């Protein structure tokens, strides 16, 4: 079975690399013997999708293109799948080794480990692992708990539009969003997707923990240009509340809200189990404060207090 699958993957890779135009599923099925032997269309589709994902995991860049007949085709351009010689010194190799340990998510951990093995086989120097040698209790980790992370990561990589149901902090029910994903950013322990919202015709940022249900792919090219990484990062920070234009005064229950305390510009005890904090006020602060529930009371400004009250009422109605 392993040999049969390897042969099938090799045949699919050769077909995608050898074509000058995108090949449809129908054409690929007629060109590869293993696909011809598939009993039903459903079994072929499942086999093809698995094989395509496996080839991408192995490093083959497969493009998805929609032709004039609205039929989806696939190809792997040779110039996109040809890498120059890679030369790394000991410090660069050590940095890659440390980066490979960051991911807790199983699929990414395997990909990182496989990438290191390929680089070492190509002659990358073995770097001394000082972290492993000293058995440090502190290890770099990026937690990924949201089920939406993996499909969105692949969609960002492959430049594929997606559809998902999204529940805003002040909404009782989720609503469907059609998004051209740009990048994923981790900010203050939460993952955010930055991209182009097709329905609203504008860039938007979505918190992954508020995505409900399954993330579904959509065919077709992006309709909006993708900005550079710096612009997207700034957008994520702005929509998540990082960019502060003024300050707000809040009352916080003692012993609670440590993330808020870490950002406070000033703090004083009020007595009775409450503290008063001055915190930076930027876009998204109202949504963040709602997460602390009854432990936070907004004193000023009035517009922030009103926004928080509106969000809490929407949650209560839901």
Secondary structure elements and their pairing?
Elements: H1 2-18, E1 23-24, H2 25-31, H3 33-36, H4 41-57, E2 63-66, E3 72-75, H5 90-100, H6 106-121, H7 130-133, H8 149-158, E4 161-166, E5 175-187, E6 190-197, E7 202-207, E8 211-218, H9 229-239, E9 244-253, H10 258-263, E10 266-271, E11 274-282, H11 285-290, E12 296-300, H12 302-317
Antiparallel strand pairs: 1-3, 2-3, 4-5, 4-8, 5-6, 6-7, 9-11, 9-12, 10-11
Explain this structure:
With 318 residues, the chain is α+β, with helices and mostly antiparallel strands. Helices cover 39% and strands 25% of the residues. The chain is built from 12 helices and 12 strands. The strands form 3 sheets. It has a 5-stranded antiparallel beta sheet. The protein has a 4-stranded antiparallel beta sheet with strand order 10-11-9-12. Strands 1-3-2 form a 3-stranded antiparallel beta sheet. Helix 1 (2-18) crosses helix 4 and helix 5 packs antiparallel against helix 6 (106-121). The chain is elongated. The model is unreliable at 130-138 (pLDDT under 50).
